[in-house]
Design a protein that fits this description.
37% helix; seven-stranded mixed beta sheet; 683 residues; alpha/beta; Rossmann fold; Dna Ligase, domain 1; 24 helices; 4 domains
Length: 683
């Protein structure tokens, strides 16, 4: 835990709880907190505190905390009273505080947290919605939280209520819920960490806006995956932000949302877009047993009582990279024996009216597919669950078939997903009670299975350790950054730095024509007219420098050898320091259109050679690097090494908020940096 070494029992299963600000008036927070606390009084002591007196459900309100033994204090009083209540609770020996009320200004909240943690206690909030642990009968929040196997950590109370309602309708619920509030002590990483070892929790879910210590959170995500606890994450920030003020191309291309997505990819978590998608995926994961561990996507067999729905279902899975393989002749023959003539038996399987004539056909076909070994998942799509709506006399039979379907999935250890046009019928209730996911739309089932498959195939790693900070650089200009990178082995063209035209001509003669002239002190040199290429003689150098001085006002210039290796491609490589995650490396296809048609990959820096290589091979245009249409491949090892050098230097120089090499020219003979600069913090 991030604060004092305190076991989580006092937070999630205390021996005693006090609700300060308890109320007997429904609709008030104090009423719901007190009512919820009283549901666990068979397991723990519950004290209700309100200085005005009163009672709730026969439990009298106490005037204060003095003289009470209370491990966990819930604070729901006006902001001005929060600090005195906490001080009184500490004196009474409280070990945890859940502060529902806002703690005042940020400085006041930080002071509150210091007071709590200095006494060896812990603080959840302030400004949170409380917490619930259904396994320990602890309900200290407003709203309904059905019991189940999903552990949720959230910075949004209403979103938690929405997720709870969706889970409840699907026959699932929460093992534990933690509302983070302003995270003055217990943060998202710590709250999620408590769920990793929590046996009733089988799926972890989180909504996080402020990641605080992002690297620690990444480590918790990787640990959860290693423990067999999949993590589903929601965050904000997909809307594009204006990049006009960015100090580098990297600054324009690296968003906080993209950083979170990269962290999830590398830590084995799944970044999703909505509460509904989170619940859909959680249901699929909870139904998952014994999938392939070789990283292959699960094979799905589709069963439909309509040819059109079956075909659309097959497409929905296939376009989400979930294979729908053709079934063998032997399996097709066994299916044909149970179906009418002309039924489709090769995947998707079309019942061709068999289900209407005999509901048992659904179970027999599904059992055959689950037993076949040719499908890891069976998806049933269409009308099942709705027959009793039209003919109530079929209710018992349809429920029995639903039970047989669930039995087959449990016996084989292979999940069954059901998509149906029915809603809340007795047969669907049987499926949900037995842990079979039921979806209203086929795309929900397909997206959930695709997400679960990506999690199963993930190979997470702990976030990289940060190097010891290097002595600060003098500035972030090309001359300085080039020297830092060259010292670490990154190759640059031969160059010298000058202040006037005659110096430039003399250097050009030493370097050898043609040369490149660059104006120093500019981030976006090309846009500002600060770069001149292929200068073939002294007059061209003089003319170019005169134009640059007039357009940019630069006082210093670089004269470089012109580099144009055959079969070269431009990359952009950069690192941006994220407030939560630290240095984040970017590698992508470079050139003038890098921001117009971004093709990039991100990862926490520093990089390993394997991670750098994976970033390059994960680009959409990676075939350009590996030999497109007969062209020779670039030296990927040299390119990966260059990425590592750039990431290492940026990670060590904490004074740089951004560092960029653009372009990095990669070719069959190696990698060559043609430009570099950094943005210095505070400048």
């Amino acid at each position: 835990m991030t604060g004092p070494d305190q076991p989580p029992d006092a937070l999630f299963d205390p021996a005693s709880v006090a609700v300060v600000g308890a109320s007997a008036q429904p609709g008030k927070w104090g009423y719901w907190l007190a009512k919820g606390a009283l549901t666990g009084r068979g397991r723990r002591q519950v004290h209700l505190v309100n200085r005005r007196g009163g009672s709730l459900d026969g439990v009298p309100f106490r005037a204060g905390l003095a003289g009470l033994a209370c491990e966990h204090v819930v604070v729901a009083v006006p902001p001005a009273q929060v600090r005195p209540v906490v001080t009184e609770g500490l004196a009474a020996g409280a070990r945890c505080f859940t502060v529902i009320t806002s703690g005042g200004e940020p400085a006041e909240e930080r002071a509150l947290a210091r007071e709590v943690t200095a006494r060896g206690a812990r603080l959840l909030g302030p400004n949170c919605m409380g917490l619930v642990d259904t396994s320990s009968e602890l309900r200290l929040s407003w709203g309904e939280f059905p019991a189940g196997a999903v552990g949720l950590v959230s910075q949004s109370g209403n979103l938690a209520l929405e997720i709870g309602r969706l889970l409840g309708r699907a026959g699932q619920g929460f093992s534990r819920f933690v509302s983070l509030g302003n995270q003055r002590d217990i943060d998202a990483a710590e709250a999620l960490e408590t769920l990793v070892g929590h046996a009733p929790t089988r799926v972890l879910a989180a909504y996080v806006e402020d990641f605080r210590d992002g690297r620690r959170l990444a480590g918790v995500l990787a640990a959860a995956h290693a423990a067999g606890k999949p993590v589903l994450l929601l965050t904000v920030g997909r809307s594009p932000a204006a990049a006009g003020a960015a100090a580098s191309h990297t600054g324009a291309l690296v968003s906080s949302y993209d950083t979170v997505a990269a962290v999830c990819r590398d830590s084995g978590a799944l970044l999703l877009e909505s509460a509904g998608e989170l619940v859909d995926t959680a249901l699929c994961l909870l139904a998952t047993r014994g999938w392939p561990t070789d990283g292959a996507a699960p094979r799905v067999a589709v069963v439909g009582d309509s040819g059109g729905q079956g075909a659309l279902a097959a497409d929905a899975f296939a376009v989400r990279a979930v294979p729908v393989p053709e079934l063998s002749a032997d399996v097709a023959r066994r299916l044909a024996e149970a179906l009418p003539p002309g039924a489709g038996c090769r995947n998707p399987v079309d019942l061709a009216g068999a289900g209407e004539a005999d509901l048992g056909s659904y179970a027999r076909v599904t059992q055959t597919l689950l037993d076949s070994g040719e499908a890891d998942v069976v998806a049933l799509t269409g009308y099942f669950g709705d027959y009793a709506s039209a003919d109530p006399q079929r209710t018992a039979h349809e429920c029995a078939v639903a039970g047989a379907l669930a039995d087959a999935a449990a016996r084989t250890g292979r999940p069954l997903l059901v998509h149906t046009m029915a809603r809340d019928t007795p047969a669907l209730a049987v499926l949900r009670e037995r842990g079979t996911p039921v979806y209203e739309r086929i795309e929900q089932a397909a997206a959930a299975l695709s997400g679960a498959a990506r999690l199963a195939a993930a190979a997470p790693a702990d976030p990289p350790s940060l190097p010891r900070p290097a002595p600060p650089a003098a500035d972030g200009g090309y001359e300085t950054v080039r020297a830092l990178l060259a010292t670490r082995g990154l190759a640059f063209p031969r160059a010298e730095f000058v202040t006037d035209a005659e110096e430039a001509v003399a250097v050009a003669r030493r370097v050898g024509f043609p040369v490149v002239l660059k104006a120093m002190g500019l981030a976006h040199k090309t846009e500002a007219g600060g770069v001149a290429l292929a200068l073939a003689d002294a007059d061209a150098v003089r003319a170019a420098l005169a134009r640059m001085r007039a357009s940019t006002g630069a006082a210093r210039y670089a004269v470089e050898a012109m580099a144009a290796p055959a079969h070269a491609h431009e990359l952009i490589v950069g690192v941006r320091h994220d407030p939560a995650f630290g240095p984040v490396a970017l590698a992508g296809i470079g050139g003038l259109t890098a921001e117009l048609h971004p093709d990039t990959g991100l990862a926490l820096a520093p990089l390993t050679p394997a991670r750098a290589r994976a970033l390059l091979l994960g680009l959409r245009h990676a075939p350009l690097l590996t030999g497109w249409r007969g062209a020779p491949a670039v030296d990927l090892e040299a390119a990966a090494t260059a990425l590592c050098v750039i990431a290492d230097v940026a990670a060590a120089h904490t004074e740089f908020t951004e560092l960029e090499v653009n372009p990095l020219l990669v070719h069959p003979g190696g990698a060559l940096a043609l430009d570099a600069h950094a943005v210095v913090r505070g400048v």
